[in-house]
Amino acid sequence: MRVELPPEPAYFVDRDEQRERVSRAVQDWQGRSRPLVVALSGPGGIGKTELAHLIARVHRDRFPGGVLAVDLDDFRLGGVLDPGDALAQLLESLDVEPQLVAAQFKARCRQYWNMTSDAKLILVVDNARYASEVVPLLPASGKCLVIVTRHGPLHDLEDGAAVGLTLPPLEEREATELLGLIVQDPRLAADPEAVRMLVRLCDGLPAALHVAGRWVRGHRLRPLSRLIPQLRGELEENGVPDVERVWDTVYGSLSRQGRSLYRLLAHHPGAAFTVESATALLGLGQEACERALEELHGAGLLDLRSLTGVGDGRIRLPGPLRGHALRRSRQDAAEDEVGQAQTRVLRWMVRQAQRADRFSAGRRLIVSEEYGAVPGAPDVPLDDPDEAADDTARSERAEAAARWLYEERHTLFASVRMAHERGAGCRGGGVVRAGVDVCARPSEPVRRDRGLPTRCSLCCPARRERGMARTDAMSTRASFVGGRPAERGRA
Q1: 8 exposed, middle or buried (CB, 10 Å; 0-12, 13-18, 19+)?
Q2: Phi and psi for 16 in degrees, rounded to 5?
Q3: Whole-number Å distance between alpha carbons of 126 and 163
Q4: Which tens digit of pLDDT belongs to each residue from 67-120?
Q5: pTM
Q6: Helix-strand-coil split of the chain, %, nearest 5
């Protein structure tokens, strides 16, 4: 039996759910005329290849034809792949003499199909970019298992992959376990808070955890608390070795708008963003932003699953990828590209906060300037309660506005910091300091006559107090007692 697999990784944790799904699919795949295709997707450094090899080892006894492996990146020239070269390697792995490999591509395909027509083997296809690269490599037998790794989901495979698995970052517990296995140092047990900081710095990316582990092992005499700032600087400056090249390649394959959005996401206020705020950041309209987001998802640089099902509608660029996007921004961004994007998204955030504040608490005297629509950045779809047909609809609209303020509170606070750091004022840059102090649960009924827990303040350099600009526009705080809002007072 030929087994073209490298030695097992020294340390591997988690992925039990993904392995169980593949095991069930292998057991249930009976009497099909095409091979079982398992597609593993996720950003570089997430552990796709290691998991593919692990799955192949676990199931190789079911497939007496052996395990073949091909890395498509080995055959790329200038980013272009000739599948015939990969086919030639597979045919040689099937004991076809090199001089007997057919010269023409179609003839080589027929030769491969003939060799695999009754085979029962596992094929690992690493670093695929498109389904068109995978299809010629599929064995002709339905008794085979094909494991494909790529950065984004394999949507364009004809009939789809039977099992498509997007690998998420490791949870904190599993990431801590992996770090402990790599380091094996008593300092970890002695300083659990520093360990948590290290794990969060790596953002669940196994490749980053390996870098952190090697860093800690290489500095045995220093306390972890001293190593963390140094490691953060190393990751921000140089990224994750080996994986950085992969990310650069993926980034280079993006369209102009995809590259632009990827660079700008590193400058978004707050760790998470929505489709609407990304649209404001890019400034080219919703359709263009949606295309760019889908492209980043397909390239494995973003995970859009939070936009469907039970997701919260917020997207997050993992820390190591955010660092890569920041480095690409420093190298590739046009003059003032970042400054214009930040000004645009801050003005947009202020306008949405003002609209949500007015919709939730009603019209009243304010001292801040109301901002108009931002070109290329549509407003959040909030409806004005004053235009509602009845009290029920009015209350629902006010509640939706209050909920938006609550859900965006972290981004609003980050916008305050960004505005202050940029030194933006009322008119010079047109940035407002917007904050939210929400004590009510969004699911509770909203009483507009009692006031709502919102706060919106204007950022103005003329009124800086201890380095923070403040001009209070309105502050009404409320808390819900027994399902009804009770006024707590005014700030």
Answers
A1: exposed
A2: -65, -40
A3: 16
A4: 999 999 888 887 788 889 999 999 999 999 999 999 999 999 999 999 999 999
A5: 0.74
A6: 50, 15, 35
